[in-house]
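FORM 7B - TANDEM STRUCTURE REPORT

SECTION 1: FIRST PROTEIN
SEQUENCE AND TOKENS:
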Amino acid sequence: MKHYSAFAVAREALRYHTGWERAWRSPEPKKRYDVVIVGAGGHGLATAYYLGKNYGIQNVAVIEKGWLGGGNTGRNTTIIRSNYLQDPSAAIYEKARSLYETMSQDLNYNVMFSPRGVMMLAQTQHEIRGYKRTAHANALQGVKTEWISPERVKELVPIINLHGPRYPVLGALWQERGGTARHDAVAWGYARACSAMGMDIIQQCEVTGVRREGGQVVGVDTTKGSIDCGKLGVVVAGHSGQLAEVAGFRLPVEALALQALVSEPIKPCMDVVVMANTVHGYMSQSDKGEMVIGGGTDGFNNFTQRGSFHHIEETVRALVETFPMISRLKMLRQWGGIVDMTGDRSPIISKTPLGGCFINCGWGTGGFKAIPGSGWAMAQLMATGHSPLAEAFSLDRFKEGRFIDESVAAGVAH
């Protein structure tokens, strides 16, 4: 008798009950598509979905060199927030957060969005001033956040230690409607919706060349053959720089590994997301009871998807000071994701020097929370040639000096 793994059983049940066979069994590519999206992660799938839903562009292929959602979409810590300082950042992240609110209904697929609240601890006087400034900026932007006292922090997170040996908790920036979602489900939900519109999701299909005629993209060469297209969207996160060079232009991005880990499951003890930038750690509790812990990026450029011991030590040491009760927990698993960092720690959603080719990258350590807003803006840019949400994030800003400095909001924490 043949035995199947739990994953295989779940996968077959998903195929049977949802009818999204096309998204699992990669079809052979057609000769020509109106649009080809490279990258079947959250941002790429969201772009394809909103191209179909908002603009009726459904002759689309999403091609992926690995498997659906196998990159950063499946390797993050699922935090969703929009409490950014700069106006363009707040606008696109708040758009994303609002789309997360109704995503399960829109996709008819439960993405397990949980608006449990996100808390960013202030543990120095400098952070108090910074977060109060952000709270005032958010009020002007229409993003609902507030500054809360240490007593309110303790009320929301009873397991926290307010009087740490190095950095006491002096208050926090609190976004009540921030939270988490199931990262895999976001990719699966978008994939099923795209498949239902007749789009092709082609896995194990690596781009090996970009074909150009007269400064205009006309197609891509892949390991499954050549594909002609009218427009090309490049949405490949940490590999954006490499694919841009294949297309004939360069990007101001660098790739780094960002690390995370989860503990063994325990009983519910924390129902909000807590981020502590000063001691450099952030934590939430998953539905299965695991403590989901985020670390930092490596100090050198690399493409590894493994973790490193020194980041475990650094991150766990900081969190044990803030949450003493976790000191005896065992680590269950650890991993890394390849993030693409720009100089101003803000994304790039832009036309490129190659006509008909568009780029979406540079989300750094904060890509998951932006998925629906990013896809909305990228689809609008590709369909119409202009997007108010994406305008400030064009490549031109680097030669014009229009930086969107989010190094504090995005450079350390998620």
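SECTION 2: SECOND PROTEIN
SEQUENCE AND TOKENS:
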Amino acid sequence: MAKQRVLVVGLGNMGMSHALAYAKIDGYELVGLCTRNIDKVELPPELQGVAKFNNFEQALAELKPDVVSVNTMPDTHADFAIKAMEAGAHVFVEKPMAISAEDAERVVEVAKRTKRKLVIGYILRQHPSWIKFIEIARELGTPLVFRMNLNQQSNGETWEWHKRLMQSFPPIVDCGVHYVDVMCQMTSAKPVRVHAIGAKLTDEVPINNYGQLQVMFEDGSVGWYEAGWGPMVSEQAFFVKDVFGPKGSASIVMAENNAGVKSDDINAHTKTSQILRHYADMSRPDERIDVSDEPDHNALCEREQLYLLKAILEDLDLTDHMNDGVKSLKIVLAADESIHTQQVVTL
């Protein structure tokens, strides 16, 4: 079977990792790389010789790819994804897939109409340890309580990257979609209300660089998520991933040998080390499930692209995947609305 010819647009942290994944996977042929300053990008050996472009529309027209991987700034995601699907390409789009719920729904509508596969970059959905974490959570009864955060004390290059991201979204939206999506996988109940608070801790960015949301579900489950970016952010308790219900709790904990991990280390954002399981009836002692042999960031990006390839070759129905992407985006956008209106938002 012919390989899927891929155009990668956007070559930041995620785009570069995805480009390396396409170059490595046998079912793909990486035919184009596109970013505004392509001539200034230092490419690794695996990507040398691939056609380079600084204009997305030109690359799309000239290459006519089978797959387009969208890894640009969030405010271009919907537009690029739609143009790619209208041109006949399947699409991988980094999260969040749009900057509004309306645009996200439009992306999904185009995917359905053109019968193109659309995979959203929810990297934790391909992570074996997080899949196990969610599986345990579903055994804890109803309602559930979710407690999650990802604060990053970013400096230098990572702070510059965060400032660019905050031209589109605050951290509570950009990172929040991942962990709200995890909550929604743990309970199948409909989210009903969102409340949030936020703070702007620097004049270097135009929006809040800290936020915390609370979300309530139809089955009584409740959860919170917080995210802050910047050189002023505390390193204490920056990585909390915890859920409990009537039957006990499950928590992602870092082992002692991870004590020196920095909060802006991209590998630390998916790394689990151990899952701690507690039984409320004390019928069994607490379990520490060792998952230290989990894949690293680049290996997870490879798994995402293997999933896309499987969806294309086996014609997988991605309706639930796409709808879940819209749902989690609506929740975090409602949180941003709540901050600005100082009101609870009903979904």
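SECTION 3: OBSERVATIONS ON SECOND PROTEIN
The chain has ten helices and 15 strands.
The CA atoms of residues 10 and 163 lie 17 Å apart.

SECTION 4: SIGNATURE
Preparer initials: ____
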